[in-house]
């Protein structure tokens, strides 16, 4: 069955309700066993028109198409921002808190760009608000299941975040070779686990996750 393209229907409704901006928010790398978790933000405002041709949730796009769309999504958005939490931070505070930390770092980037965050609504993909607990004075956050599929701002955030994280993992191959980062991007493929068994874990791996799997 064909997947419908994302729209701006939700964003426009939120903007009509009085929000200065709608900040689409999505994360990538949550389920990986290595590398950072990354949160992307894409800001849209009243008057936003059109949607980049072919924009979709990053999971529905090929790597080549994501690379092509990332700069287009950045140019289309009023602002974009990226925040990350390292594998060490995931080990130290857990994945949910690490998501919040990455999201807070991305929001700080928007704040420094003088985005009126507290006059905005964050449209967060999923059913669980992991962002609000990480913030001292959080903006309004609205969760929406499949927002990365249905909402253009969140789809743009997902593409920008995915391309950013993929490049981190590809570059890591020259520092920690042998794990197949360019192919697996830190996710737990059979070949990846075989490399860990042969080489041992690297500094890029989430040590607690490996321990849980082998316990």
Explain what the structure shows:
The chain has 215 residues and is α/β, with parallel strands linked by helices. The protein has one domain (9-214): Ribonuclease H-like superfamily/Ribonuclease H (Nucleotidyltransferase, domain 5), CATH 3.30.420.10. Helices cover 44% and strands 16% of the residues. Belongs to the RNase HII family.
SSE blueprint:
Layout: H1 9-16, E1 21-28, E2 37-45, H2 63-76, E3 79-85, H3 87-93, H4 95-112, E4 121-125, E5 140-144, H5 147-150, H6 152-172, H7 181-184, H8 190-199, H9 207-214
Parallel strand pairs: 1-4, 4-5
Antiparallel strand pairs: 1-2, 2-3
CATH superfamily: Ribonuclease H-like superfamily/Ribonuclease H
What percent of the residues sit in helical stretches (DSSP H or I)? Answer: 40-55%
Report the biggest beta sheet as strand number plus sense, adding barrel if it closes.
Answer: 5 strands, mixed
Return the CATH class: Alpha Beta
Straight-line N-to-C gap: 40 Å
Q: What name does the CATH topology carry?
A: Nucleotidyltransferase, domain 5
Globular, elongated, flat, extended or rod-shaped: what is the shape? globular
Give the radius of gyration.
17 Å
User: Mean pLDDT, as a whole number?
Assistant: 95
**Count of separate structural domains:** 1
Subcellular location: Cytoplasm
Cofactor: Mg(2+); Mn(2+)
GO molecular function: RNA-DNA hybrid ribonuclease activity
Keywords: Cytoplasm, Endonuclease, Hydrolase, Manganese, Metal-binding, Nuclease
